[in-house]
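seq:
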Amino acid sequence: MPEIRRIDAEDDGIRLDRWFRRHYPAVTHVLLEKLLRKGEIRLDGGRVKAADRVVAGQALKLPPQVIHAKSDALDKPKPQTTKPMGSLAERVLYMDRHVIVLDKPAGLATQGGSGLTKHVDGMLDSLMFEKNSRPKLVHRLDKDTSGVLLVARTASAASGLSAALAGRDASKIYWALTRGVPKQKYGFVKGALAKEGGRGHEKMSISEGEEAKFALTEYAVLDTAGDEFAFVAARPVTGRTHQIRVHLASLGTPIVGDFKYGGPEAKGKGEIADKLHLHAREIDIARPDGGRLRVAAPLPPHMAKSWSLLGFDTELKRTPFPDKKNKR
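struct:
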């Protein structure tokens, strides 16, 4: 006998074929297409295609071939032919039923790209826990930037968090070690950014061209080591690629280890590593279910060592920036 399954909120908006991969992995694409063509799978009583998107609350009629295929898969597990990319469970800073906050390590890309075989997006299956759906990235961090990374556990949470970021109802604070000390201890850097060399080029630069996008970064110097190094907090008002890195370099104080934008001037000194010293320290964002979420990530090992060598406070609690609603 056919069975009726309701589309739940976590599957809202996904393609029908992906819904089957999530809930009935033993149903092959060939079998799915055959059942759809014959009209044996129906959505709210009507015919449907594999590429159609489902909506929470819709009723999906499933024939016995689908139900039995799931039973067969449970009774006879298929041998694993590919190794999982790894687990992120030990990097979880915070988790509830809507969101997971990760402490992304430096050197791990957020998403795949040319030549990348390991990245956060490819490891999200390890964060499903009790849910049936795969978590979703909400934003990105550069490969060599460590720290707070948001992952939504449901489609509705992803939509809400993305809206908060787009509407600037979020405050992201980064910690950086700069080579040299900015002349002003607090201020804003405004400089529109464009890709150098056209589309697909990873390097950004300040530009007045038509293709440049407005970018604004708020910063504050929290401590210094003579005139050589500064402990800088940066809060991006906009979210452009490499924004903080370009803006701090434009002040003549590049981030240590950022040779892309600082050149030889970004080199460390003594035991201070030549790795990028940029860390997503904290996020304060509107929660999808109301209220606010605020999470901080500890410094990565190479930055913690530099902070210790320079006598900076690795556990600094005070926020150097005014509350957003009071900011000019």
